[in-house]
Amino acid sequence: MTKKTKNEDPLRRDERVKNLVDRKGLEKKEAEAAVDSVITTREYPEPEVEPRIKVTAKGEAYFEQGDIRFTVDADDLNNVVGANGRHNVIDSLMDSQIVTLATCNKLSVKPYARELITPVLTRLVQYLWYRDLENNQSAARHCHVGYVRYRMEYAAKLTQYVEEPEGNGNGSSVSTKRRAAASEKWTKTYKPSSKKVSVSGREEQVLAVIKGIKKGTLAQIVEAAKGKVNTKQDLQKIVARFLTSLIEAGAVEEA
Predict the structure, then answer these.
(1) In terms of domains, do 29 and 154 share one?
(2) Does one domain contain both 49 and 107?
(3) Minimal CB count within 10 Å: which of 32, 144, 194, 215?
């Protein structure tokens, strides 16, 4: 949960537009265009890798940024952003993918709060949908401004974030410390230790992945483990499990 804050626009867009109209004598549309230009060029950090929505020869659309790739509905935006009870593509991503995507777009995940970061990434995909699929630059600019606003609101909420204990159905709740530890696992960086530890099986595979990338967060390790760790189970859970055992064995340590 988050502490309640005033419903204010951190970009002060309307106020800035009004100032240009009053002080510079600009028409409202001109003022809006000027303010939006400043917002999207000066107040938006460039991502490490530019995200895009691409279309295959068969007409299938997919989002792509770095190692993250997933399909999106090219015809119905509601089925992309989860409007009107439809599917939200971000909801289908694993935590490791959420963290990787956030990191690519220079969004903090300390602490990791999936419920706060999801709306921000949803607005990112919405913006790209209009820009790359619809080629509707006017709608894209409007959505980009909204995306930047969500980024700033997210940053403010994250500083006040307090996770609410969840009940287990028996009247008791998960301890705050335990939930905080679960959140922290996404923000820590790990590396192979200098100790010689004998491991085998999937532990050895996970250790080889970590040695291959030299150091990385759990999210980065999970992404690097694709196709390299043999499992029919959830890769994220398997990597997290064996990472823990490798740390306990002394084969891996925090960087």
Answers:
(1) yes
(2) yes
(3) 194
